[in-house]
């Protein structure tokens, strides 16, 4: 089997129309299609739903289900709010800053930009409480290759110690990464 790409990623929403409006008007995603049924096709359960699909760029599809007969949606209370999020790439820092300004002017509270050395990000929540990240790549030549090189060693060390390995601490210390000219 060879996976081609993600077909779509689906999340729950509180209100399908409000969700489409947010992603279309504030993030520029094209509303692609809606599917609604009174019965779940896979399980045959009687459970009306609205399933909406938005174009997140380059063949990536973000989808949402509004399921009004289910208990009110919540989140995993044992997982910090910053962990589960959807991250979207934007073209440049200028676009990232323009998005931040647009979101804030529409009443959305935005955190950042946060510097991750290889990209800078802003963070905010959609109307459903899903954390969203917009990221602009800022990696210098060689950074991504170095991170890929040390990834297996980092994972192995983490699996044994559950402490952050130091192989790539240059990401947040501002130090030079191995192989750089600095």
From TrEMBL:
Sequence ranges assigned to domain VOC in this UniProt record: 5-137
Lineage: superkingdom: Bacteria
CDD domains referenced in this protein's UniProt entry, alphabetically: VOC (cd06587)
Residue segments, region Disordered: 161-182
Keywords: Aromatic hydrocarbons catabolism, Dioxygenase, Iron, Metal-binding, Oxidoreductase
Cofactor(s) named in the record: Fe(2+)
Coiled-coil features, chain-numbered ranges: none
Family from the record: Belongs to the extradiol ring-cleavage dioxygenase family.
PANTHER family, A to Z: BLL2330 PROTEIN, GLYOXALASE FAMILY PROTEIN
Protein name (Swiss-Prot/TrEMBL): VOC family protein
């Amino acid at each position: 089997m060879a996976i081609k790409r993600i077909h779509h990623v689906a999340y729950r929403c509180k209100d399908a129309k409000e969700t489409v409006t947010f992603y279309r008007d504030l993030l520029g995603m094209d509303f692609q299609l809606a599917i609604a049924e009174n019965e779940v096709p896979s399980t045959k359960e009687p459970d009306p739903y609205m399933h909406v699909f938005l174009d997140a760029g380059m063949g990536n599809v973000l989808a949402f289900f509004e399921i009004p007969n289910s208990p009110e949606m919540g989140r995993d209370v044992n997982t910090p709010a910053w962990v589960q999020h959807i991250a979207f790439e934007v073209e440049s820092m200028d676009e990232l800053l323009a998005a931040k300004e647009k979101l804030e002017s529409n009443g959305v509270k935005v955190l950042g930009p946060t510097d991750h050395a290889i990209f800078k990000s802003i963070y905010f929540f959609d109307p459903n409480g899903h954390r969203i990240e917009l990221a602009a790549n800022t990696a210098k030549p060689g950074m991504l290759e170095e991170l890929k090189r040390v990834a297996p060693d980092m994972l192995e060390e983490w699996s044994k110690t559950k402490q952050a390995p130091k192989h790539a601490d240059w990401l947040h210390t501002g130090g030079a990464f191995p192989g750089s000219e600095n």
